[in-house]
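Below sits the subject:
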Amino acid sequence: MYCHLLTSRISVGGKDSCYNMMQCIAAGHEIVALANLQPEKKDELDSYMYQTVGHEAIDLYAEAMDLPMYRRTIQGTSLVIGKDYNQQDGDEVEDLYQLLKLVKEKEIVEGVSVGAILSDYQRVRVEHVCQRLGLQPLAYLWRRCQEDLLREMISSNIHALIIKVAAFGLDPEKHLGKTLAEMESYLQQLSKKYGVHVCGEGGEYETLTLDCPLFKKKIVIDSSKVVVHSADAFAPVGYLQLLKMHLEDKPNVSYLMILTGIGQMVPDLLVSKPVFIFRL
C-alpha cells in the first residue's frame, strides 16, 4: 500500500502529482492516504523544495478522493542547498520527514508516490527521507520526455489549471487560470523559442488539478484573484489566489469505475515497462 505525497514542487495537487498516482494505480498499487506540507501564513513560501501556492484547495482533495489527509505546517527553511543532503535540524526537509513519520505511524504504508520529473535536488532529499523511514519512493514520471507527459496528462482527462507563472513569455494576467489543454501549444512554442520546460520543471509554472479519474468529486473555483508577486519586465511572477471553492458530485462514479478508467487511459508503454523507482 502506498501513501501518496501530495506536496511540493513535489506538488500541491498539481498535474504531476495526480498523474503519478494514476501510474501507481495502473501498476497495481493502492493509494491509502494523502500528505501535505502547508505554509504557516502566506500563500507562496520561498522554498527550494515545496510548492505552496494553491494550498487553499488541499482540504478539498481528501473529500474529492475519499482518503484521509495528513498535514503539517512547514517550520524549517532551505538550510542545506547543496547537491547532497545530510540530516539538519531546522531544514525544511525535516518537515517532510516528520510528516511521513506520522503517516507511517497511523497507516499501513510501504512507499510514497512522488510526481518529480527532473529535479535531482528533490530526488536526493526524497530518497534521504524515505531511506530513514524504510519507505520506497515511486516516481513513474522521472526523466520522461516532458512533451509526451503533458500530452498524456491531457488525454488522460487531468483537468488542471495554471495557478502560478514565473517565466519569460508567461503573463499572470493572460495565462493564470488557463487549462493545460488551452496552454499546450503555446508552451511548446515557448519551449522551442526560449527553452521553457513544457511541464514547468524549471519553475516556469505550477498547476492545480480540479478533476481527474482519481476524483469521486470535482473541485470548482467560485472566485479567485490574480496576485502579482514580482512585476519583472521580462518574467513577471504571479499566482492565482483561490478565494472560494466547492465540490461537485460526479455522476455514477464508483471506485471500480475509477480503476477501470485509469487502466484504459494510462498508455500501455508505461504500464508494461518496469517501474522506475528512485534508488535508495
In short: The chain has two domains: 2-145+253-272, 146-249.
